[in-house]
Amino acid sequence: MSNDEHFSREFIHAFVDGQLTTEDKAEMYKSIHSDEALNQQVCEIRKLRDLVQLGYADLPEPPIKNRAMPRTGLLGLQLPLGSGIAAGIALLIGIAIGGGFSQQPQTAGAQNDVVANAAVSDSQKVLFHVNSGKTEDLREALDEVDQLLLHYAKLGQHAEIEVVTNGQGIIMLDADKSPFRERVEAMLKSHDNLTFVACQNSIEQLKAEPNLAMRMIPGTVVIDSGVAQIMRRQHQGWAYIQT
Amino acid sequence: MKKLITLALAATIAMGAGMGQVIAGGYKKQKVVYHVNYDTAKRQLGAMRNIKNHLNAVGDDNIDLRVVMHGKGYTLLKRANSDMKFQAKVIDLKSRGVKMQICANTIKGKKINVKNDLFEVEKSDIVPSGVAEIAHLQAKGYSYVKP
Questions:
Q1: Residue A129: beta bridge partners?
Q2: Mean per-residue pLDDT for A8-35?
Q3: What residues contact residue B143 under an 8 Å CB cut-off, 6+ apart?
Q4: Nearest-angstrom CA–CA distance, B112 and B114
Q5: CA A240 to CA A127: how far, in whole Å?
Q6: Which of A107, A148, B23, B110 could link A100 by a cystine bridge, Cβ 3.0 to 4.6 Å?
Q7: What is the CATH number of the domain that holds B47?
Q8: Poorest-pLDDT segment among A27-36, A88-97, B99-108
Q9: With an 8 Å Cβ cutoff, are A148 and B129 in contact?
Q10: Rounded mean pLDDT of A100-127?
Q11: Chain B residue closest to A153 (CA)?
């Protein structure tokens, strides 16, 4: 439990929820990289959070949708109802509007809330799946990620992007063998909303080959299974792009 | 006997109506986005064959099918400009309601002359970002297929 000395539980939770500053995040990544126990702990919390969100994602939605969607739809905005937080907000909005129906004077106020909340929670979530280790494929995948980040930045659109590597694709994040180590590090540094993920199963598999010890690029998040992560994310309403 | 068939038919129709959008093939209405970002002719032809089979299985009127091309995927429409085999397939799919969309970033990045280099691309076929479009469509409930 060496990590307890450095990071409180709250701090780790804040990290998993993406609420830390870039500096704190960088320090955390560094520690995760060198501290197996901490890495495990982060993994556990991440899993727990995903499960909680999954639980919320399965809440019955139709009545909320019917009320909240037309209003947000007018603005061309969409609530990512798949995510637990958004579902929670949508539920509150639904209740607010529901109340508004019986008391006319409150309706205008409730509508304003819908607009404000929709703008805050309207985040595009995109997962890129990389399973090829070919240099050209990796370059193209990173180009696509860069282009998408740029596209959303231009629009002022909040977005979260996760690059999940498995199979041969994990070489992208191999600190010693990646043809794009510097590029990945630079991307991580300049984008708070970007995460690189490597599959533990794949790491183990490649490690099993002789003379292959693997060190990941600092900042890489290692998760139990890449495929499980992809399923989890899709369940949570993330878009999936196979590079 | 005729009456029996009519009855059975009526029952089938009634059942179909009761269940909403279920049609003969047993599929509900589908929304699908196909992702093409590779340039091998064989794979592109394979993708178009997949799409054709998909349409056949679900029914042209029962599906909203889009093909989003970006990166090297633009070569599908470049080939259709000169290769008759490609052209025939593209024409066939479009006539069946398939929307072929291409990424503006790709056009800009690869300095493509839309009119001369690509086969029948209208302004409305161009999307600002192929990947963002695919993500957007998925958020709207489209299924993702990368053949």
A1: A164, A242
A2: 73
A3: B30, B31, B32, B33
A4: 6
A5: 5
A6: A107
A7: 3.40.1260.10
A8: A88-97
A9: yes
A10: 52
A11: B132
**Residue type at position B24:** A
Encode B30-48: b = buried (16+ Cβ within 10 Å), e = exposed: bebbbbbbbeeeeebbebb
Residue type, B16: G
| Least CB–CB distance from A240: residue in B128, B129, B144 | B144
To the nearest whole Å, the CA of A81 is away from the closest chain B CA by 10
Q: What is the chain B residue with the closest CA to A242?
A: B146
The residue type found at B14 is: A
d(Cα B26, Cα A42) in Å, to the nearest integer?
45
Instruction: Name every chain B residue with its beta carbon within 8 A of the beta carbon of A124.
Output: 132, 135-136, 139
Task: Give the Å distances, CA to CA, from A113 to A69, A78, A85.
Answer: 13, 15, 16
Asked, for residue B6, whether it belongs to a domain, the answer is no
Q: Which residue do the tokens 């009526």 mark? A: B10
The pLDDT of residue A134 is 97
Smallest CA–CA separation between B138 and chain A, in Å? 6
Tell which of A151, A155, A162, A233 to mutate to test the B interface (max B CBs under 10 Å).
Answer: A151
Domain count, chain B: 1
Tokens of B142: 């489209």
- Sign of the CA dihedral with A58 first, then A61, A65, and A68 last: negative
pTM score of the predicted model: 0.65
In a domain, B94, yes or no: yes
Q: CB-based contact (8 Å) between A75 and chain B?
A: no
Per-residue model confidence as pLDDT tens digits over B40-98: 999 999 999 999 999 999 999 999 999 999 999 999 999 999 999 999 999 999 999 99
Neighbour tally for A153: CB within 10 Å: 13
Q: What is the ipTM of this complex?
A: 0.79
Question: CA of B18, closest CA in chain A: separation in Å?
Answer: 20
Tokens of B108: 């800009």
